[in-house]
Amino acid sequence: MLRHIARRFGVWTLAGLAAGSLAADTPLRDRAERFLGLVNAGYQALYRVENEALWKASTDVTPVHDAASETAGRARAAFNGNPAIVREARDLLAHRAELTDLQIRQLERCLLNAAEGPMTNPKLVADRIGAETAQASVLNGFQFHLGGSNVLANDLDRILSKSAGLAERRAAWEASKATGPALRPGLERLRGLRNDCAREMGYHDYFALQVAGYGMTTEEMVKLNEEFMRALRPLYLQLHTWTKHTLAKKYGQPVPNRIPAHWINNRWSQEWGGLVAGANLDAHFEGRDPGWITRTAEEFYVGLGFPRLPESFWTKSDLFPAKPGEARLKNSHASCWHVDLEDDIRSLMSVESNARWFTTAHHELGHAYYFMSYTRPEVPPLLRIGANPAFHEGVGELVGLASGQIPYLKAKGILPREYQPDEVSVLLNDALAHSIPFLFWASGTMTHWEADVYAGDLPKTEWNRRWWRHVADFQGVEPPSGPDSRGEEWCDAATKTHINDNPCYYYSYAIATVLKFQFHDHIARKILHQPPQRCNYEGSREAGEFLRRMLATGGTRDWRALLREATGEDLGTRAMVEYFAPLQQWLEKENAGRKIGWE
Ligand code: X8Z
Ligand code: ZN
């Protein structure tokens, strides 16, 4: 998950004054510049205070840390959501034709920030911050149990990725769903509070507020995600068919119509790794020091010409699971934080030495290098964000893809030189573990459920039924105990981190998946002149320069224009479909004579 924060104060202030003198050549621009100087300063200072507190509350869950984080959250909202700030930003935007593009972007960002805690209704904001803090505390401090013992999320994931016993797999899957009932009451309350905050500022609901950051409406965002799925559906149906036949054989079961959720190596069936024998890389990571994983990820970026991570990254980050016997409870989901919007960049992970954490570490450092690239005087604190959130997610996704390619893994000595996997296996694994089922989960289940809940005000008595209907329809997956077996008491959506602490955001990962193939296609064909399915970025300063230029502008540019300028095309699935075209043909042969899909 992406946590973006502010950057150091003095440096920006001086640079801001210099930039201001250029922009302030009319009385209105001068007024805007002075206003934005104040807002940027307050925003940055409070962002840092809040994130310091949130960091403690996420890495060591205690009532004291929760209280500090709630107080800091209120201070942030008191400033960002201040009615005087909202009024002045609106007043200035009423004369947008007379303002600079940079000023307009900052003013629009002020209003989006204000809608997270609009102080025209202080009680609502206080209630929301209190409820958000409590929800994060339940989520971050949750203790999983399996067979009477305390276990970590990593332990459940290990069973799901390794065990061949369906009873053991089912027990691990069910243990992972125990968070749902604990999080359900808080989520029900938060749906109302989040929607009310957005409505206070004139948005229809919280989903509409979040997609406004893309300059889109809810309908446009849902339609975009449906378009992604339409383009990839033929491939997904083939993969689904191949997978259920492969797994039925592995577990000695009849071939099901939909795939039981505990057959798949991921708690939500979002990524289908470990299915392709010739492409399972876990054995090559076994026995390595987990510290090596993040260092190796840093090497990837350094090889492209990016600087090393700040030294404080290594001293301040929290990269490994809590040790056995350690009383501390920490959030188990990976994230990257820009704590002072300067050079205090940290990652929260629970790295173990396996292929999944290898990819995740590259993903998180994508955020870190984005932070570092736009932390410069030309980008004011309010715009130290991605061109859009999907760009932020897309960098790490791209590098996850590039760092998983065989020529790169061989060059780094992770795979032996003589390793000769067949190309279809590699492509099949790429599709299953990182891209295609993921798209149907992200664009399908997650995006549609949150749109139903926030934009559609779905009654809470229908939440779990709707969740499993989406899982069945979009993913072709069903609960281990059969359809209709998960009553409303479960709230299985809430077992997914983002549903609780990064709401109405998940379509960003779907867009990032599409973007990663567009970026990769451009780098492979136009810069490296290598086939996209087999290429090695290692040491390519040109590939690095392409990325660095795109990242350095942060939120100061329109994302559509930036994408067109960088790759020559608009957002779309062309590159993704082409990348997997050889796989589609292979699957059609493998699946000949089988019933395709689940309808
Ligand atoms: O949440 C993440 C990252 C942190 S931004 C680890 N991801 C999504 C997930 O785990 O559900 C990466 C891809 C999808
Ligand atoms: Zn991310």
Features:
599 residues; mainly alpha; Neurolysin, domain 3; three-stranded mixed beta sheet; 25 helices; 7 strands; 62% helix; binds L-captopril; binds zinc ion
Radius of gyration: 24 Å
Bound molecules: L-captopril, zinc ion
CATH class of the largest domain: Mainly Alpha
In what range is the share of β-strand residues? under 5%
pLDDT averaged over residues? 94
Instruction: Return the CATH topology of the largest domain.
Output: Neurolysin, domain 3
Overall shape: globular
Spell out the blueprint of helices and strands.
Elements: E1 2-3, H1 9-23, H2 27-59, H3 63-80, H4 83-93, H5 101-114, H6 122-140, E2 144-146, E3 149-151, H7 153-162, H8 166-176, H9 179-200, H10 206-212, H11 218-251, E4 259-260, H12 282-285, H13 290-303, H14 311-316, E5 335-338, E6 345-348, H15 355-374, H16 389-403, H17 406-411, H18 423-455, H19 463-475, E7 477-478, H20 497-501, H21 507-528, H22 541-552, H23 559-567, H24 574-579, H25 581-590
Parallel strand pairs: 1-5, 4-7
Antiparallel strand pairs: 2-3, 5-6
Helix pairs in contact: 1-2, 2-3, 2-4, 2-5, 3-6, 4-5, 6-9, 7-8, 9-10, 11-18, 11-25, 13-15, 15-16, 15-22, 16-21, 18-19, 18-21
The protein binds L-captopril and zinc ion.
How does this structure look, described?
- The chain has helices at 9-23, 27-59, 63-80, 83-93, 101-114, 122-140, 153-162, 166-176, 179-200, 206-212, 218-251, 282-285, 290-303, 311-316, 355-374, 389-403, 406-411, 423-455, 463-475, 497-501, 507-528, 541-552, 559-567, 574-579, 581-590; strands at residues 2-3, 144-146, 149-151, 259-260, 335-338, 345-348, 477-478.
- The chain is built from 25 helices and 7 strands.
- A hairpin with a 2-residue loop joins strand 2 (144-146) and strand 3 (149-151).
- The relative contact order is 0.12.
- It is mainly α and 599 residues long.
- The strands form 3 sheets. A 3-stranded mixed beta sheet has the order 1-5-6, with helices on both faces. Strands 2-3 form a two-stranded antiparallel sheet.
- It is globular, with a radius of gyration of 24 Å.
- The chain folds into 2 domains: 2-136, no CATH class; 142-195 and 204-276 and 388-590, Neurolysin, domain 3.
- It binds L-captopril and zinc ion.
- Zinc ion (ZN) binds at residues 1-2, 363, 367, 393, 396.
